[in-house]
Amino acid sequence: MRSFLLGVVWLICIPLGISTSHAAEHGVVVLQYHHVGDDTPRVTSVTAAELAQHFGFLVENDFNVISLSQAQKLITSGEPVPDKTVAITFDDGWRNLYDNGLQVFKQFNLPFTVFVNPELMAESPHLYLSWQQLSELADYGASVANHSSTHTHMTWQQAGESKSQWLERQKKDVLAAQAALDSALDGEQPQHFAYPYGEFNPQLAALLEQLGFIAFGQHSGPWGATTPRAAIPRFPASGHYANLTTLKTKLLSLPLPARTVEPASMVLEKGSDEVAVELSVRDIDDFSIDGLNCFYQGQQINPTKQAAGASQGQGWQLSLTLEKPPLGRSRVNCTVASQSAQGRFYWYSVPLVRPNEQGRWPD
Ligand SMILES: [Zn+2]
């Protein structure tokens, strides 16, 4: 009788394409753009035609494109995230979003967020969107959010400045930018922050969280239930990342339930010739840990994997060593195939910045 019933369940489920186990866990894929145009640095640009192609792809393939506010609500609700949920962001508020992007925003009317630097907008109005233009873009899907007042490397301490003075300076900067947004736009704006250059450290993340913000970096991977609220990843979609073949894999990626144990901060110690990276990965039945691979600077690195947790069945401790990370920003990407969703990957990224002897690095 029991096997008969199981057979009936199997017969019903298979034609509907319902998997009886191994269900994939979904997250929100956040895309990150900068310029729209063909006369700006390619690495941070998409042309209007490419942007229209991306937006068209999302619409034609039934992606659920939502605003960051809707995404935040969804993630914090603890409810399952619908499959193929995507949010769109633009950093810096370049004027070319209006000059070249407006036609695309009008055509598709998808929600997106523009992260702006209010002091830079006031200093160089010919480069940046005006509040008036931002209001007009809001009619075609735009929300406006905080990218700091002046777009500095926020983790850099000034000469003679104490740790607490540095943190106080950052707090004032973030709050001044938010006050400018609130006064120039229609009242209180969402507390969404994008770190300039995607750079942060644990003190900054704690500050943003304490002030009530969610905060976005520039390391890749989807935003899932276990993502820290002040270290949310985004996938770059400009330059050679604009290619739809590779972008498609990212749009369909799933959040790997991992956290970084080591290094404690993305900003490495000076003279870090060898960097130990350690991740804690929760075990879910939709992937096999054996298939998990990490990639760094175009090289595949196989981490050592150890069962962790009280019953040795709750998760995995992954360790790998990076030799001579380059000066400035880099990232380690770790991926593993979903067993239930063919061609789709769980994805987690570890951002790193290696400083020079003066504790600085290039933009
Ligand atoms: Zn920026």
Automatic annotation (TrEMBL):
Enzyme Commission number(s) of this protein: 3.5.1.-
Domain of life the protein comes from: Bacteria
Group of enzyme by EC: hydrolase
A biological process from GO: carbohydrate metabolic process
Localization per Swiss-Prot or TrEMBL: Secreted
InterPro entries registered for this protein in UniProt: Glyco_hydro/deAcase_b/a-brl, NODB_dom, Polysacch_Deacetylase
Matches recorded under SUPFAM superfamilies: Glycoside hydrolase/deacetylase (SSF88713)
Keywords: Hydrolase, Signal
Domain NodB homology: 84-299
Main subcellular location of this protein, as a coarse class: secreted
GO cellular component: extracellular region
Keyword check for ATP-binding: no
A single MF term (Gene Ontology): hydrolase activity, acting on carbon-nitrogen (but not peptide) bonds
N-terminal signal peptide: 1-23
Keyword Transcription: no
Pfam families: Polysacc_deac_1 (PF01522)
PANTHER family xref list: POLY-BETA-1,6-N-ACETYL-D-GLUCOSAMINE N-DEACETYLASE, PTHR34216
Protein name, per record: Poly-beta-1,6-N-acetyl-D-glucosamine N-deacetylase
Organism: Pseudidiomarina piscicola
